[in-house]
Design goal:
The chain has eleven helices and ten strands. By secondary structure, the chain is an alpha+beta fold.
Length: 353
């Protein structure tokens, strides 16, 4: 019984009843002693109501508060002061504003402000969870880093990762994706696409992943319904890999023997624009000590600068930073290069010597 009562008090309706009782108690206090109980006390529960109540109950609570303010004003009778005369119109205006907002565009969300924020945080965490790197053999280091435009909690760039078990050894499947737009504007589309790509990445053969993602995007009715992506399928036993890209900046491989970077040029149309397209693979091999970098255009593109120069700058900075350690290099590199006005994502795959 206690547990059930606690759950009810924590529910939307329970909170509304509790706040209504507080406002009603303040009104009773004004009736008995208007000089000791300020009218502001009856108005005070409106603030937690705005934060906690859903837009289904908030309009009704606002109407209730109009009644409370009116009754409290009548009960004051001859005890009006200058402060009271100024406060009463302000309370009416704010309460009516809450009612109008909660019955207008605010109804789209349908939950309280604090609960709505917690839901958005949960959705953001779900995007990040898609990019969690699975447990790998000790000979492999995979590191990723994300940064959003302006430091926002939401970004259009994300990473998807999974492992595929097969008879000849495990394969690591990785994708770095850049959804059109940036920051919060791209966050909702990134959430929807990351969930779909997370399912497709582990369920389909590598050669079908980008094509199936393209079909998925074509079925969505988005004003900006396109994205770029690069997909890496890596054999953890041999180091052999396949890279496919969809309108995305090329991957870069560092050869441990020469210490030089080489660009793996891949071609393919962006996702969500053309129907019935193929994405051809560039194949290669990661020897012990070799490294692959997958990244989004926010790492290498800046206004009035050629992307090739941006790639050279990023690889030069990577060469400088890796002298310290491979561990944490992705995060250090994202902080060191790229445009702070664009979302940035970087994935580093290193085969330990």
């Amino acid at each position: 019984m206690i547990g059930r009562a606690g759950r009810w008090l924590g529910s939307d309706r329970g909170i509304a009843v509790l706040l209504a009782l507080v406002a009603g108690a303040a009104t009773v206090g004004i009736a008995f002693n208007p000089e000791a109980v300020p009218i502001n006390l009856a108005f005070l529960p409106l603030l937690p109501a705005v934060l906690l109540l859903s837009n289904r109950l908030l309009p009704w609570y606002a109407l209730y508060m109009l009644v409370v303010i009116t009754v409290s004003t009548v009960l004051l009778q001859g005890h009006y002061t200058l402060r009271t005369v100024v406060a009463i119109p302000v309370m009416y205006v704010l309460t009516i504003a809450v009612y109008l907002v909660s019955t207008g565009s605010g109804r789209r969300l349908g939950v309280g402000r604090i609960r709505g924020e917690s839901m958005l945080v949960d959705l953001r965490d779900r995007i990040l969870a898609q990019g969690e790197i699975p447990a790998l053999p000790a000979s492999w280091l995979v590191d990723s880093a994300l940064a959003s435009a302006g430091g926002s909690s939401f970004a259009g760039d994300f990473v998807v990762a999974t492992t595929r078990h097969q008879c000849r050894g495990d394969r690591l499947e990785l994708a770095v994706v850049d959804v059109s737009g940036k920051g919060e504007a791209a966050g909702t589309r990134a959430l929807q696409l990351s969930g779909a790509m997370g399912g497709l990445l582990g369920a389909l053969p590598p050669e079908d992943f980008l094509a199936s993602t393209n079909e998925y995007l074509l079925q969505r009715v988005w004003e900006e319904g396109f994205a770029t992506a690069i997909h890496l399928s890596l054999d953890l036993a041999t180091g052999g890999f396949e890279v496919r890209a969809a309108g995305h900046p090329p991957a870069a491989q560092r050869l441990a023997g020469s210490g030089r970077w080489q660009i793996l040029h891949t071609e393919g149309p962006v996702l969500g624009v053309l129907d019935d397209v193929r994405y051809d693979a560039v194949t290669g091999h990661l020897a012990p000590g070799d490294t692959l970098l997958l990244y989004t255009d926010g790492m290498v593109e800046e206004p009035r600068r050629d992307i090739e120069l941006g790639i050279d700058a990023m690889l030069g900075e990577a060469e400088s930073l890796l002298r310290t350690s491979w561990d944490g290099l992705a995060d250090r590199l994202v902080k060191a290069v790229g445009s702070p006005d664009d979302d940035r994502a970087l994935l580093l795959v290193h085969r330990r010597p």
